[in-house]
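Bench log. Compound arrived from synthesis this morning; before running ITC I wanted a structural hypothesis for how pyridoxal-5'-phosphate sits in the protein. Inputs:
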Amino acid sequence: MIRQNLENILSSIKEVAHCSNRDPADIKLVAVSKRFPVSAIEEALAAGQIIFGENYIQEAAEKRQHLQDRVRLHFIGNLQSNKARLAVETCDMIETIDRPKIVKALHKYLERLDRRLDVLVQVNVGEDPHKSGIVPNEAESLLAYMRDFPRLRLRGLMTMPPFTSDPELARPHFRRLRLLSEEMKLRGLLGGNAKIELSMGMSHDYHVAVQEGATLIRIGTAIFGQRPPAPVIRS
Ligand SMILES: *Cc1c(COP(=O)(O)O)cnc(C)c1O
């Protein structure tokens, strides 16, 4: 089941990429395994999936214990600064940087461990008061602030638009994230010579996200099925 779902999604990403004149190799799938047991991840791994997304740091850390470096873990949840240390020890990428406090906290542990960490800044493009992420107007100052914290390697931007059942309604949000990334690049705050990552699109709207330039797509339900209501692994 998981294998078949992955195959379907990857081939559909490929198709949409071709139709939008994009190289499918530029688009990576993040399998959102939050609340699913390690056995589900093992099944996806066996089918060739490497990157997994988690949104509870404790749960991610437990899964890391089991899976070691066979997987790449992207953190996509709301990160508290008192979990910064565990996040640094656990994750390959944190997609949800949205305030100076978390930048400072992560940098402290990265310095201590003499390490670097790939990160994305989460932008609340819909300016939805119920969603985390920095509003577009404040993105520039956060990105400028982050220049003093070089152990966080800023790779790009992430967004989660307001939920709608019609994927077309997400399009302007995805587009806005891409335009914002281009603007930040022009100001010298993002990208440099490296490719800019745009993490956007979920199970119901990833086609639209690919058309609008997504390089990381976060898909849970369409791979693993309906999520269990409460975390399977919490410590
Ligand atoms: C849970 C989650 C997803 C995956 O959502 P699905 O609808 O199951 O594909 C993607 N991004 C974030 C930030 C999430 O928390």
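What the model suggests: The mean pLDDT is 95. The beta strands are 28-32, 51-54, 72-75, 93-97, 117-123, 152-159, 197-199, 216-219.
ITC booked for Thursday regardless.
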